[in-house]
Amino acid sequence: MLACGGSRISHQNLGSRFCSTGIFHLSSFTVKPPSSAAATVAAIVDNNSHNPRFVSSSSLQSKSAGDIPFPPVSFSQREDEHEKPSEALSSVAGGTVALGKFDALHIGHRELAIQASKVGTPYLLSFVGMAEVLGWDPRPPVVAQCDRERVLSSWAPYCGNVAPKEFQVQFMSVRHLSPRQFVEKLARELGVCGVVAGENYRFGYKAAGDASELVRLCDEFGMGAYIINSVMDRHQDARNMNRLDLKDRGQVSSTRVRQALAEGDMKYVSELLGRPHCLLLTIKDWESLTSTSSTQRMSAPRSSLLNLPPKDGFYENCSLLFGEQNAVTCRVSIDTSHIHLEMDRVDFCDNDYSQKSQVLGIEFGELKS
């Protein structure tokens, strides 16, 4: 088994957080240091004391969204260009993995990445092929596959200037593992040194393991375990979303993001994501483009969308993203069959794109009532 050196988390003042819902409280689980001296759990120094204690990473303040440099827009043109799942030891050996589903890459997921970055090289470990194995109905992702790297790059200023990487495992290969077998796979097969999870995380066959068992098993296999409180949604009382789900105490979740998109509340979506929602679509030709002396209009079928759009309607103050060019303010209308864009006349459509598909990104403003 790979020996994992412990590290001490240094306190960093990262400025104020964009969304106040992102602030955690002291974890309800006491993180037990592993018995192996080679894998000690790191400690944070409290703001008001010189004595180390275990706290969640979000008690450290972070930069507001306006202070975070946004990476250049660069979209892969094909969904299948996304990195294929791999379980090679060299990919995550010696790193710290955050555990979750990571569909929406929302602020709760970002907090897991922040904690992982404070104790090692951060990775997001998620499973692929769950829908096919479990018979779930297919649905579009919240974040397009070819846009995930860009989103993770935008987290780098929160994570010690290191962009977290994704590591995907085929769900079929771990579906029947017991909680102990799963942790053993992380330690011995993948060479992981530390694990970060939320307080409600379940794992193992039929979700038999919980966060407290994860801490115990990581201790047994010489890995650090870091359990953090859920990021709570400040709108939970007003919206009462997911009230029939007894596991939902009001935490930020991908389900909440999907529901907010279905309502067309893009301000709320931005708060949950920590960024504007970016809808990607492929344009195979420009035949639908019409121009006047001052405006340009174009339409694309919904089949060209690469991820989940918001509610049908008319959206103002949107931003059109195209390659390395500056964002263009636009207006977007979505109906049952098409998405329509209108913008001031710009030059990005004047080039010859007839030989290949192009990917456009749309960051949404507010729904016009």
TrEMBL record:
GO cellular component, one term: chloroplast
Residues of the FAD synthetase domain: 95-235
Gene3D superfamilies: HUPs
Ranges of compositional bias, category Polar residues: 55-64
Region Disordered, annotated ranges: 55-88
Pfam families recorded: FAD_syn
Keyword terms, alphabetized: ATP-binding, FAD, Flavoprotein, FMN, Nucleotide-binding, Nucleotidyltransferase, Transferase
Entry's EC annotation: 2.7.7.2
GO biological process, one term: FAD biosynthetic process
Biased composition (Basic and acidic residues): 77-86
Root EC class: transferase
CDD domains per the UniProt record, alphabetical: FAD_synthetase_N
Pathway involvement of the protein, from the record: Cofactor biosynthesis; FAD biosynthesis; FAD from FMN: step 1/1
Entry's Gene Ontology molecular function annotations: ATP binding; FMN adenylyltransferase activity
Protein name per the record: FAD synthase
